[in-house]
Amino acid sequence: MTDPWSEIAEGWAELWGGFAEPAQRAVAQATGIGPGTAVLDVGCGSGEFLAYAHRLGARAAGADPAPGMVALARKTAPHAEVRTGDAEHLPWPDDSFDVVTAFNAIQFAEDPEAAITELRRVGRQVAIAGWAERARNDFTVIEDALEGEPRPDGGHRDSLEDLMRAAGLEVTGHGIVEVVWHARDDDTLVRGVLLGGDADADADATTVLEAARPYKTDSGGYRLVNAFRYAIGR
Ligand SMILES: C[S@@+](CC[C@H](N)C(=O)[O-])C[C@H]1O[C@@H](n2cnc3c(N)ncnc32)[C@H](O)[C@@H]1O
User: Fold this and answer.
1) Which atom belonging to ligand 1 lies closest to the Cα atom of 109?
2) What is the pLDDT of residues 156-198, one digit of tens each?
3) CB of 92 sitting under 6 A from ligand 1
4) Which CATH class is domain 4-134+152-180+226-233?
5) What is the Å distance from ligand 1's center to 129 Cα?
6) Are 66 and 5 within 8 A, CB to CB?
7) What is the DSSP string of 89-119?
8) Domain residue spans in the chain?
9) Using a 6 Å cutoff on CB, does residue 167 contact ligand 1?
């Protein structure tokens, strides 16, 4: 296991696995996922959305290029068919699904536009979701502290609809959802923020703890309020 997502798969599941849940609920409702719906989740990570779709009665399938994530998703959602594959090359025939979703994943595709075209090839309805623009996210304060200066907003975060249109889809819905990240203590906060990082861990831990002070709760944990945007298309 040498790919970066496989290396952090266990940590991802523990620290971030449930993070996108409010966006997942909003997308499931907006796309009508329910009993009998055939759903594919692309970049399924540790499989939380697959388990949720199953609870809604859907027939869930997942794809992720990282074998470590695929293994975890199969454990989290044993009823789902999870295959190894990236968003640009999905190992299913045309029109296999009613709904194809991607949460916090499409930005990792080398060519996100081509990836959306591929999502549409295998399904009739496509929903993509990801972090909203940086100004809406408490997490930005910590990222900026680690960088040493504010970063400009990235393009993909506020243009999911444009991306969909560029991929030839008609946008049929969009929305914004609050997603809160909780860390129960200092250690969890630092591990969660620095997950996958390779910089100077001690110095970075101090920076993270200082930057996160405004978000400390009475119980000694942290609560960071962020936002996800989603777009739906056909
Ligand atoms: C930030 S995690 C999100 C996981 C999950 N969707 C969630 O919301 O919890 C990103 C996931 O995208 C996967 N990924 C990376 N490159 C990808 C690609 N080109 N196509 C599809 N998924 C990719 C990673 O392996 C990882 O599981």
Assistant:
1) 19
2) 444 899 999 999 999 999 999 999 999 999 999 999 999 998 7
3) no
4) alpha beta
5) 12
6) yes
7) S-SS-TT-EEEEEEES-GGGSSSHHHHHHHH
8) 4-134+152-180+226-233
9) no
Q: Is 99 in the pocket of ligand 1 (CB under 6 A)?
A: no
Determine if ligand 1 sits within 6 Å of the CB of residue 108.
Answer: yes
Q: Which atom of ligand 1 is nearest to the CA of 24?
A: 8
Per-residue pLDDT of 216-229, as tens digits, reads 999 999 999 999 99
pLDDT at 43 over 70: yes
DSSP string, 123-149: EEEEEEEEE--GGG-THHHHHHHHHTS
- The backbone torsions φ and ψ at residue 24, rounded to the nearest 5 degrees and listed phi first, read -65, -40
